[in-house]
Amino acid sequence: MLSVSATPLPSVSEPVAPAPPAAVQDAPRAERRPTLSHRLEYAALRGAIGGLATLPWRQATAVGAWLGRMGYAPAGIRRGVVERQVAAAFPELTPARVREIARASYESLGRTTVEAAIMPGLGKQGVLELFEQVDGWELLEAARAEGRGAIVVTGHLGNWELGGSYVAARGVPIDGVARQQGNPLFDRFLTSTRERLGMDVVWDGHAVRRTPRSLRENRVVAMVSDQGALGLASTYVPFFGRPAKTPRGPAVFALRLRVPILFAVAVRLPNGRFRLAFERVPVVDTGDRERDVDTIVATYTRMLEEWVRRYPEQYFWQHRRWKHQPADTPPHLREP
């Protein structure tokens, strides 16, 4: 696969409903009036981001790692959830190693949060320079050369926001399917930071309507594959041997519209820079739509698992990945 080098680091099982005609416009996001609590929370956030943005990149992300560690201890935010999930995914590990990975995952989440917040200040060139290695870029180019657009699935590993921003910075038209945040002020801020780097943001509630149109325009549509999405159906596939509820929308779109799927991940390297990797997800249409969809979903979930096994400390273990399971799940495979 192609490897692209950068310059030194600078100082972020039910079918989907049919899509309506292209002439139908997206419904606007529900405008929510910010509460006083929202305003205070947002003011504190913007103040913190403003202060971090004045620091060199490495120092700012180090602050993020420190904040993450505080979330693990002494705050203990979801610490039990994280340690139980890590232990379930890696039963061969000692308790000490489980705690080490858990603590590191909080540091990674802190870094990712700060990176995403200050990333727009780098500009497109600065984003490109954060990457030391890019593997499989030719796969994305080949997919778009087919003229039907491309779907990119990823997971909450490394810095998923930065991966999408890299694609946009390379001049590729990309839509990122995202959840609406609870704080409307922060939601607008997050959307604007993504858009400043060239990514169009699609609320997950609009994905069924918007995705076919974007693909017809030969755009890339990026979706996270390890959390539920509003308006997109899910199925249960193995993730570290346990059934996990996983969005099936990317697979349905790929089969229905004959669109290629790529799995992508942006992981942080020891020197603080990043590696972005693309892999083609096989799409086989046997005529059994339900089985074919489940096969594709299981494939990109397995790809994510393989990368999480390589970089377990960079996964978002704070999310209860096995919270929703089939009713007939055996007790030993239920949520840990």
TrEMBL record:
Pfam families: Lip_A_acyltrans. InterPro entries: LipA_acyltrans. The keyword Magnesium does not apply. It is found in: Cell inner membrane. Keywords: Acyltransferase, Cell inner membrane, Cell membrane, Membrane, Transferase. Its main location: membrane. GO terms for biological process: glycolipid biosynthetic process. GO terms for cellular component: plasma membrane. Residues 1-31 are annotated as: Disordered. One of its GO terms (molecular function) is acyltransferase activity. Residues 8-27 have a biased composition (Low complexity). PANTHER family: LIPID A BIOSYNTHESIS LAUROYL ACYLTRANSFERASE, PHOSPHATIDYLINOSITOL MANNOSIDE ACYLTRANSFERASE. This is Acyltransferase. It comes from Roseisolibacter agri.
